Structures are given as C-alpha cells and as structure tokens.
Amino acid sequence: MILMRVLISGAGVAGPTLAWHLAKAGTHVTIVEKAKSLLPHGQNVDLQGSAVTVVRAMGLLDEVRRRNTKETGTQFIDPTGKPFAAFPIKEGSYASLSSEYEILRGDLAALLFDATRNHPNIEYLFETTITEVVTNNDDTVKVELSNREAQEFDLLVAADGQWSKIRKQCFPSESVKSIHTGMYAVYFTIPREPSDNDLWNVYVALKSRIVTVRPDPYGTIRAMFTIMPRDEAQKRAWLTAGRSDRHTQQKLLRSEFADAGWQTKRFLDAMDQAPDFYFHVIEQIKMSTWSKSRIVCLGDTAYAPTPLTGMGTSLAIVGAYMLAGELSKLNENEHPAQALAAYERQYRPYVEKSQWIPFCVPGIAHPVTAWKRWLLHAVFRILARVVAIPWVANKLGDPSNDEDFPLPDFPRFDSGSTWAK
User: Fold this and answer.
1) Is the pTM of this model over 0.85?
2) How do the domains of the chain map onto residue ranges?
3) Backbone CA torsion sign across 252, 257, 259, 263
C-alpha cells in the first residue's frame, strides 16, 4: 500500500471504523469532528450480518455485548398498556425486532473512539470542521479547516452524516437524491419508573402515530414518537418544525400527541428535562456516484438507508472495511480513484438491496383509523404465535451470519502493523 494521509470528517461510526483499518495498514489518519467531544446520547442501533464479522475481527464484539442496552425483546401493547404480541430475543435468530447486539449509538461511537484514539497514526481534532475544500485534483485534496489552517491530504472521506456539508459542497445537487418517506421521528431520554420493563414497548396510536420506549443501560429509558402527517397543513407544520428550534418542535409534538393515549402524557411531561432531544426527518440518501477524484462519501453521507431498514450502522461498518481494504491494495503511483471505484463497484449492489424498505412501513404501520389498527394488531398476534414455534425461529436465520455480504480478504490487514492494543 502507498503511504497516504487521509482526512476523515466525522467521528461517529463510519469514520473511526475506517480509521482503525487504515491505520492497521500503515496510513496516517486525521479525524475532524465539529462537537467538543463525543455526544453521549442517542437511540438504539444494532449490528447485522457482516458488520458482526467486522467488529469481531476488530476484537470489539465482547465490548459491544458488555455495553448492550439490556433489551430482551419487543412487545406490542394496546391503549391500556397490555401486551398482545411478544417477540423475545432468541439467540441466533431474527425472531425479534430487537437484536442481541443492541447498543446505543453514542456507546458504539465511544467504543470505536477508545479503540482508535491512542494509535500513533490516528489524530482526532474536536471542535474542528472543514470550512472549504479548496482543490481536489490529481495531486492532492486541499482543505481549509475552521482553525484557519490550510492542509493537504491524499484523500478526503466525508463521513459527516445524512446532511453532509462536504457532500453538498463537492457533489452536484443532481447527483444526490434525498427521498422523504413521509415520516418524522422524535427521540429523547426520560426517567425510568419501577413499572418499566426491559422490552421495546410499541404502542400504535391512531391518526398515523406511534409511541415507543426502550431500556438503556443507565437506569433511564429512551422514548420515540413517530408520525406520518396526513394533510397538507400538517405536512407543512412538521416540515417547518424540522428547521426550527427545540422549543418549537416540542410544542408541535405536544399538540399532535396530547390525545394519543397509553403513557404518552408521562413521556411528554418529562420532555423538557430531557438531556437530549432529536428531531429526525426520515429520509433516504442515494448518490449517483460516491466519489469524485480524491473525495469519497461513506456511511449515511453516501447511502443513509433510514431507520426503517435497520441497516444504517451495519452498512457504515462494512462500507468502512471495504473502502479501507481497496485502499490497502494500491501500489506506488496509483491514484486513490482506482480504489474508490473498486469499493463502489463491489459494495453498491449490496447497499441498494439493503436500502429496500418493506411495503408495510411506514404507511401501513401508522394506521389512521381504529379498524386499520385492529387489522394491524391481528397480523402482529399471528406473527408472534408463528415465530414462537421453535422450528420457525430456527429458519429465520442468524444475525451474526456474514453471508449477507461475503467479506473479501485484504492481505494488508493481516500483515504486521504498529497497532497498539
């Protein structure tokens, strides 16, 4: 592999995973992150398929298990809080919407940061952003940082998320599609009460609304509200709120969910004191090409699949492995664009397959009327009984099976390195 200097924007999941593999192969990596430090909050993410294999190979899977949210499964409840369809986690099976590798996004980011921050080839710059990409040509990519430094690198990786500023600056608007699913989600953390359990409790309200709570490992619970606006006035209100401040967003959430039922009032009453609050427009990102000369997009920046697929974190991790692997194959005098094209050529078909959203979500899962909710509940009841049959659960597959995307071997990852455990 040629010795390279790589700049990564974003210290979430994709960026540090890429840095881990690049540093192992001898590359010097700088990661810039706009936040003062890693954000401690966030909702659940999980690992699927090949991502489990990658994290295991990094020696981090046991730590993922240790930081597990302790969620034991998923259950659907009626307006009185009574469960009517349960999907407990079964090891080695997709019989539940919950995963044995369930972890808070902030905890996963912290784990990856801890695994990379002491490597001599990795440097983190917090409270730093890329203010301008000055040049991107055959020789180098030159950037100006928010600390007013101008630096040159061999490669710039945009891993700064679904609304990436680097992508917006460096790729033409016609090459990027933001596909709105018609759904909005709001997340925040609230106090746990003795009556709360360790399940993902899902309450389907009427008028296209859902309220859920999930356990975390810190003695609190994570609330999530989702909605699909039904008319033009409601759509405008939610679209406007997405561009507004927290106070405006909370006011809208209260007005829309005040009559939703179950324990919604309790959750809304605790919202003001929540240490975190995230308003999420559920959109999918599709790019006609992921790279341009010496700039490449990774993870949600290139192919955010939406939480509806459950694949965002896994795609970021496997994508980082694939990108680092193709870069590790470069020889002296070979342009990085060769590796970027190979990364996209091999990985894009799997990404496009993973971005598929089942027909029943989000629309059917957000019923407007009582009879549609009754029908949805009936389906959940039947599914719960079917997957409880042992031989059916065994047929549903193993989430740690890497056959969903066979990982190629990259010899450079197996060679000696200066990696400091």
Assistant:
1) yes
2) 5-69+100-177+285-358
3) negative
